Amino acid sequence: xxxxxxxxxxxxxxxxxxxxxxxxxxxxxxxxxxxxxxxxxxxxxxxxxxxxxxxxxxxxxxxxxxxxxxxxxxxxxxxxxxxxxxxxxxxxxxxxxxxxxxxxxxxxxxxxxxxxxxxxxxxxxxxxxxxxxxxxxxxxxxxxxxxxxxxxxxxxxxxxxxxxxxxxxxxxxxxxxxxxxxxxxxxxxxxxxxxxxxxxxxxxxxxxxxxxxxxxxxxxxxxxxxxxxxxxxx
Length: 234
Ligand SMILES: Nc1ncnc2c1ncn2[C@@H]1O[C@H](COP(=O)(O)OP(=O)(O)OP(=O)(O)O)[C@@H](O)[C@H]1O
Ligand SMILES: [Mg+2]
Known about the structure:
Layout: E1 2-11, E2 14-24, E3 29-33, H1 40-48, E4 55-60, E5 63-64, H2 70-76, E6 78-81, H3 93-99, H4 104-107, H5 110-120, H6 122-126, H7 137-149, E7 155-159, H8 167-182, E8 186-190, H9 194-200, E9 203-208, E10 211-217, H10 218-223, H11 225-230
Parallel strand pairs: 3-8, 3-9, 6-7, 7-8
Antiparallel strand pairs: 1-2, 1-4, 4-5, 9-10
Helix pairs in contact: 3-7
The structure holds adenosine-5'-triphosphate and magnesium ion.
Magnesium ion binds near residues 40, 41, 83 and 159.
């Protein structure tokens, strides 16, 4: 469904991604693992059109998207749930969610989609009138994910959803991500929480200093000495 081929991405003169290639299929959770500063967010931003690669290609459903603007990429069915949630603090939960439905393809179905999002996150229905800035960290993450789902994506790319959350809530977020996969949505998941992520992911890529250094089935990667030492502290 998504195919990234040999991309180089720069910030000015500084190169952040070097010849990165990867694939994501429908109904598959693919994890991206890497240390702080490895280039994970840069890679997601290059897929969602916030950055453009200097060379290489990004294809989604056999269409080249690396030159498109981010709103056009949302329209095609990729939803980016950003690191740090990026909510509109002075808007209500409901208004934040509705902002996720601005794509033409989905705007007229927004009430129906909103009901589905409230089914996945019942707490958000209870709090629909509350201002986003007054929510707890966990509730804010749920709004960010709910907003991402409002565009009815075929592929969700999610940047560190568990960051700053208590373990029980992390479990809940991971369960929800597995539920999305079971509905056929492809998931590209960045996480610092490597053990738990590899347990729910089908496949994973390791990014080091802007390069993919390892890739494969998550179950196998969990056994790799390099992963165990560098990311699991075993
Ligand atoms: N806007 C920017 N301008 C210049 N350099 C940047 C910019 N954003 C990121 N970088 C640099 O690019 C590199 C990769 O950053 P990136 O945010 O992609 O890392 P990351 O893997 O997501 O890290 P983290 O786990 O801390 O979120 C870092 O060296 C960072 O300093
Ligand atoms: Mg990041």
